[in-house]
Amino acid sequence: AVADNETPIWDIVANTGFDVPNLRTLVSATDVEVNSEVNIANSEVKAIGGSKDNNLTDENGNILHGNLNIQSVANSQVITTGLGLINYSAIIGISDVNSGITITNSDLYATDNLKISAKGDNTVNLSYLDLSLLDMVETLRGIPSAAFNWAEINSDVQVNVDNTSTLNVQGNVDVHAESIRNLSSDTVAGGDTDKLGFVASVAIADTNAEANIAGNINADGAITVSALNSVAKDGDFYVADTSVAESMSGDTFLGKPAVNAVKLSLNKVVQSLSEHKGFDITGVPGKDRDWGLNAATAVLVSENNATASVTGRVRDYSGNDGAGSLNVLAENISRTSM
């Protein structure tokens, strides 16, 4: 008998797309939960094919391969891009991914290789641009503006073989748990005539990848038990967890960050105040306006765990001392940017 227990690939794309707000507000909220699980309990699973001891063939004479593959995959993607004309924005994106394989009180046999793999890929990318920053856009005057982004990723990816189970493999054993994340929150808001502008960006990641073998392993080949928890890659580069908040105001095409005022000398501030009733760090005269107050806050919390363990007995396929090799690896890769 050939057993190949592979869960379907769960691919849920929650994309609010290109949000076009009304003239005053933008509110977008997305909450996604994706679960993929494989449970094997109280079972005997055998993958027997043409390996060391036999040359079993199918009805067409093809040699059967005794590979046993058990896989769980969960993917989620939340991408929201917002353009606002004036004043207020709130964008929330939350994605929960759970991918797991649990083997209890069971015996698994493979005359070639055994592969057990759980993967979770979780993406939340939020971005917002306040178009009132553009000098060409007419906006309501003297009204406070506020923009808020909340991006949150929660991932739990696990492979667990309990202490009442045994893996019997003539070839190689590969047990792997992998959690990948892509998290970003970017918001830019302000306006030419704001009396008060406030921007907040919050990005939170709580992820876990575990591969734990408490049962016995009898294998002639290489045994690898690994867990990887990582930010996503773009080519050869890792993509950092990112949280960016910019509150801007001014008289030029895209305005200027309020914090840039500290770059001006006292004489420049005085001169600008006297000439423009405000200041312009480019030195180019602009519209007369009153002073405004701008503030921006960015928060990034990223907690990520990777665990790999083998606590059961390890022997060769016949149960004698000396398996081919044993490699246990836990890898946690993190990058942050604010």
Write a compact overview of the structure shown:
With 338 residues, this protein is mainly beta.
Topology:
Elements: E1 5-6, E2 10-19, E3 25-41, E4 44-47, E5 68-84, E6 88-104, E7 107-110, E8 114-130, E9 145-161, E10 166-169, E11 173-190, E12 196-213, E13 216-219, E14 222-231, E15 233-234, E16 237-238, E17 241-249, E18 256-257, H1 266-276, E19 293-310, E20 314-315, E21 325-333, E22 336-337
Parallel strand pairs: 1-5, 2-5, 3-6, 4-7, 5-8, 6-9, 7-10, 8-11, 9-12, 10-13, 11-14, 11-17, 12-19, 13-20, 14-21, 17-22
Antiparallel strand pairs: 15-16, 17-18
Question: How would you portray this structure in words?
Answer:
The protein is mainly beta and 338 residues long. It has one helix and 22 strands. The protein has one helix at residues 266-276, and strands at 5-6, 10-19, 25-41, 44-47, 68-84, 88-104, 107-110, 114-130, 145-161, 166-169, 173-190, 196-213, 216-219, 222-231, 233-234, 237-238, 241-249, 256-257, 293-310, 314-315, 325-333, 336-337. A hairpin with a 6-residue loop joins strand 17 and strand 18 (256-257). The chain starts with a strand and ends with a strand.
The sequence of SSEs as H and E is: EEEEEEEEEEEEEEEEEEHEEEE
The 3D shape can be described as: elongated
Q: In percent, how helical is the residue content?
A: under 10%
- Taking the alpha carbons of the first and last residues, their distance comes to 54 Å
Q: What's the multimeric state?
A: single chain
Count of runs of 4 or more consecutive helical residues: 1
Estimated radius of gyration: 28 Å
List how many beta strands DSSP finds: 22
Low-confidence stretches: 1-25, 251-289
Report the portion of residues in β strands. Answer: over 45%
Calculate the mean pLDDT score and round it: 75
Characterize the main sheet.
Answer: 10 strands, mixed
Helix/strand-derived category reads mainly beta
